[in-house]
Amino acid sequence: MLPLPPTANDANLFKIMNYSPHSAEQTSHNMDKGEFLRQLKTQLKADNILSEPEQLRVYECDALSVYQVLPWLVVLPETTEQAQAVLKLCSKYGVPVVVRGAGTGLSGGALPVANGVLLSMAKFNRILAIDPDNRCARVQSGVRNLAVSEATAPYGLYYAPDPSSQLACTIGGNIAENSGGVHCLKYGLTVNNILSIHLLTIDGDLLTLGGAGLDSSGYDLLAIVTGSEGLLGIVVEATLKLLPMPETASTLLAIFTSIEQAGAAVAAIISDGLIPAGLEMMDSLAIQAAEAFIHAGYPVDAAALLLCEMDGMSEQVTEDIARARAIFYAQGASEVRLAETDHERKKLWAGRKATFPAVGRLSPDYYCMDGTIPRKYLADVLLGIADLAAQYGLAVANVFHAGDGNLHPLILYDANKDNDLARVEVLGHKILELCIAVGGTITGEHGVGMEKLNGMCLQFATAELQQFHAVKAAFDARGLLNAGKAIPSLARCAEFGAMHVHHGQLPRPDLERF
Amino acid sequence: MDNTDQLRECVLAAIAHKTPLHIIGGNSKAFYGRATQGEPFHVAKHSGVIHYEPTELVITARCGTPLADIKKLLTEHGQMLAFEPPHFGNTATIGGTVSAGLSGSRRAYTSAVRDVVLGIRLINGQGEVVKFGGEVMKNVAGFDVSRLQVGALGTLGVLLDISLKVLPRPETEITLAFILNEAQALTTMIELGRQNLPLSAMCFESNTLHVRLSGAESALKAAQQRLGGEVLSPIIAKTFWRSLREQQHEFFQGDTPLWRLSLAPATPQPQLSGQWFIDWGGALRWLKTDESAETIFATMQSLSAHACRFRSVLGCEFQPPAEALAKLQRNIKHAFDPHGLFNRGRLYAEW
After folding, report:
1. Three-point CA angle B229, B233, B237, nearest 5°
2. How many alpha carbons lie under 13 Å from residue A369 in its C-beta half-sphere?
3. Complex ipTM
């Protein structure tokens, strides 16, 4: 049985879900904008400094566009020295800094702060070296993810992490978010695929974390910086691990008449010792949306489908595909199709990859969630989500990186309707509570940003949050880098916690009340 | 047995009395790391597997759980720790394995210790029990404090429980041997590394390149036909890889200082005198030498590589960090252990 998520008072939730920076998460300064601009202009070309409102407007949000803040200034340095100079100025005058790659983040991590500099890494867009013998590529942080694999393809090598925004998203953003993709069960996340980075601290020091080899001395700072959402430093360069391109890849489409069967089939694949390169699940609403949009050949009456890809040497792939096919049938699949040609294979994946825009056609707006759960609770959680969705009168489509338990419920809504977004956020919050209740996490790959700060209060205890703040202080004692993101203040959690009075007991009695 | 409360009381007492603690699990890796100051603090009784579900590919165990027990349990379910951890003695624990951060020959092809750590529970230097990460594969909530513990040699806290990602054992394995000189072997490892082959280890010593392949029998047969070489008998192959992992191979015997060099795999052999054993397809080089530490560290620094004097009567020593990085590491230490209690001196002399 599923443990019940904590109950919250919806009226109170409405109030706090609407984003506003908490006073404890803001950093104030008295620097005059004109004077700051004058000093910046001694370091950067005037073209690379934006201060007019219409110029700033472009940067007011990332891909979580429901939240918008106009930045104080935008700077686009072209060299490490210029970036260093900007940071030194910000550090000197206590001006907060938000770093931005391509702005494809889904959690508001690159949302500007009103009195801070938005540091765009867009001009750090060069691939510096490809070293096929050492199977690595040295790139600037503003290089697009897909550009790496395109550039290394002539050497028979590729960069494995493939977030769905890979056409646009940058390596620096991938490192900040520890991005995954559909292949992470087999090939790992960003943290598993980088060798070293050049990091600028808020004081403008240039550090090299990691090295040319696989292991380094001292603390694994490369690990703690990866996924730190721009709170610890600014990545200007990275050396990425490359892998030999698989000799072949094959994809199975397995069709199920119930979510439970599909969930059991995922567990059966894993327990049989198979590690697919990709193992994705879609529920009926996601299937219908994708099929209407892409015509991938998905069965629109199915309750769930699984896409299972095997890659490697052709002999290995043939064996693995045969095993997987047998397992799917044994678990009750009504049909299992093998993509016979590369064209067919790409078409099957096109449907999955287009799920988000496909859902966008069904509904004026949608809100993408990102919880991760132990796989065994898959069916329970999906049924729980369906119950909650009905309760709030909203439709939810589910796509799921089934291999690694990462769930992306897409909540359909209409931003022009009063209260719709507020209801969505409460539903989203309840879904995250459900993920935590089964031992999962509020974010698998999209990050906390500003979006899930309240969720962090649920997932972590005070001492843990304090430990995070201590780590932050070790890098950035004054809290200037991406202030107010990723790690909630204790004050926020105290206020948020007060909404969750459970069995008459005040949670977090250890915290001062505000 | 869950000893969290007792261990925490000890840490609180240590804070109160300003007594530094020397954390000891199975003591199998006492040689690794610099001389440690402090009262011996035995943690091995905090032991036992807490949670293991093969279909979730995750095992959670207390720090004192013997590494051998974990491996046995995983083997029973057709799974393994994919980083091929060295034991260096029968008493090795999972806590010590993670704290030391040492990975075996599979490191270059499947994963390292750092790749499989999903979550931890820790007593920090304030005496608080804190939990980070979890049992799920993907988790980006909060800083990745779990991975930071790998290789930290216990200087950031007392590791209580650890969740690790596990992988299925390969269907089968074969080891191919090729008689080559050192230069040929390095070239061959580079070439093979660029191909799509089911590699799980490549090492070279005294004119023999060993290549281990893991996967379905049909795939291994095809790979073997492509590569040639002599197929070692399974028992000889297994003994060979174990002797390398546990450093029982004759190369590792004798009194000459043993260095561990982590560098880019295609790096030509550095101009350092001594005997070499090349692992990780070229990315890890063991060197027995009397060259000075200054010479070796300087040579490695010029290669963006990292060296460690691994076993020596002179003691263990790590590549010194650049100044700004040294300052940051000290800040990190302070963030976890403000009173400087845990394993003082083990990583760096100053703290």
Report:
1. 85
2. 30
3. 0.97
Does residue A153 sit in the same domain as residue A189? yes
List, for residues B17-43, the tens digit of each pLDDT value.
999 999 999 999 999 999 999 999 999
Residue A79 Cα, gap to closest chain B Cα (Å):
20
The reply to whether B193 and B238 lie within a common domain is yes
User: Is B324 an 8 Å CB contact of chain A?
Assistant: yes
Under DSSP, the state recorded for A205 is -
Contact at CB, A464 and B261, closer than 8 angstroms:
no
Same domain, A43 and A109: yes
**B231 contact A CB<8A:** no
The minimum CA-CA distance between B45 and chain A, rounded to whole Å, is 25
Structural domain of residue A379, as residue ranges?
Answer: 363-437
A76 backbone φψ class: left, alpha, beta (φ>0; ψ -120 to 50) = beta
Amino acid identity of residue A81, one-letter, is E
**Cβ <8 Å between A217 and B308:** yes
Interface test with B, best of A155, A237, A313 (most B CBs within 10 A): A313
In the predicted model, what is the mean pLDDT of residues A172-201?
A: 96
Question: What distance in Å separates residue A84's CA from the closest CA in chain B?
Answer: 14
| Domain-located, residue B349 | no
